[in-house]
Design a protein that fits this description.
By secondary structure, this protein is of the alpha/beta class. It has one domain: Alpha-Beta Barrel (TIM Barrel). It is built from 13 helices and eight strands. It has helices at 25-37, 57-71, 86-99, 116-129, 140-143, 149-155, 171-177, 195-199, 215-226, 230-239, 241-246, 254-262, 279-291, and strands at residues 8-12, 42-45, 77-80, 103-107, 134-138, 161-166, 186-189, 205-208. The protein has an eight-stranded parallel beta barrel with strand order 1-2-3-4-5-6-7-8, surrounded by five helices. The protein is globular, with a radius of gyration of 18 Å. The relative contact order is 0.14.
Length: 295
């Protein structure tokens, strides 16, 4: 399925692991089918929520192949191919394109960071190397560096860069890049708590952690807003705002996997250096899930 200015709720999928730490592809099948049945508009695999940073290249490829096979063109599949090494990012991007990915998510170069020109080349060289659309991923809380506004402006003109996942949570930054939005460049919220505010400045939807827990609701919020029912979308967004926030009570994806396990969805354990939540935070999250009617 072609990725052409997709609008809606794109789930940032978790990667389920068995108790021995191996990837649970059977459980992944069930979780993907649950998303599609709930109306999710797109699947992101190997994002931050998918714990790609603790997976081997072989495991990453297996998850991508399995996801593409199970989804079978029913919705677009976006694959996180980012790296802080541009050459590695290009290699993975070409591999995932060959495997059938519909689009790629490219993260800002973490740890080594970059000056604006290096940042631009990191993305532009990757987009030049593939034929499927590329999304920028701005998440300075993880990478230690934001994509400068001037770089976003330049990259928005690139014919193979189709948008940005904006996960800084900074509405001022989002406003500064909002003028880049158009038929060839989309803005997606990377933070569930500001999905509606970001759509109010032209955003096309959300790449969502919350959708792992409540996919129907996440889809409905975005669909309502985009179809002109903004008040209804805002009311539902506010109704579940506490849950959206509590899914970040500790570093993602610790809480969302804990929530899914409480709900019987079989997300499995985390991989070190991530580990289970504190007892206090577990109690808070459980109470929020009960309040939302999920337990």
């Amino acid at each position: 399925m072609r990725f052409e200015h997709l609008q809606g709720s794109i789930v940032a999928m978790i990667t389920p692991f068995r108790q021995d730490g191996s990837v649970d592809l059977d459980r992944l099948t069930a979780l993907l089918e649950r998303q599609i049945a709930a109306g999710t508009d797109g699947i992101l695999t190997l994002g931050t929520t998918g714990e790609y940073s603790t997976m081997t290249h072989e495991e990453e490829a297996a998850v991508v192949a399995h996801t593409i096979r199970v989804v079978d063109g029913r919705v677009p599949v976006i694959v996180g191919s980012g790296s802080n090494c541009t050459a590695s990012q290009i290699e993975k991007s070409r591999q995932y394109q060959a495997m059938g990915a519909d689009a790629l998510l490219l993260i800002a170069p973490y740890y080594n960071k970059a000056n604006p020109e290096g940042m631009y080349r990191h993305f532009a060289d990757t987009a030049d190397a593939v034929d499927i659309p590329c999304l920028l991923y701005n998440v300075p809380g993880r990478t230690g560096c934001a994509i400068p506004v001037s770089v976003v402006e330049r990259l928005a003109e690139h014919p193979n860069i189709c948008g940005i996942k904006e996960a800084s949570g900074d509405m001022s930054y989002a406003m500064k890049i909002a003028h880049c939005i158009g038929p060839e460049f989309a803005l997606y919220s990377g933070n569930d708590d500001i999905t509606v505010p970001l759509m109010s400045i032209g955003g096309s939807g959300v790449i969502s952690v919350f959708a792992n827990v409540m996919p129907e609701v996440c889809h409905r919020i975005v669909a309502d807003f985009l179809s002109g029912h903004q008040e209804r979308a805002l009311a539902e967004h506010l109704r579940y705002l506490r849950l959206m926030n509590d899914l970040f009570i500790e570093v993602n994806p610790i809480p969302v996997k804990a929530a899914m396990n409480m709900m019987g969805l079989g997300a499995g354990p985390l991989r070190l250096p991530l580990c289970e939540m504190s007892e206090a935070h577990t109690a808070v999250l459980r109470a929020t899930l009960e309040e939302a009617g999920l337990l």
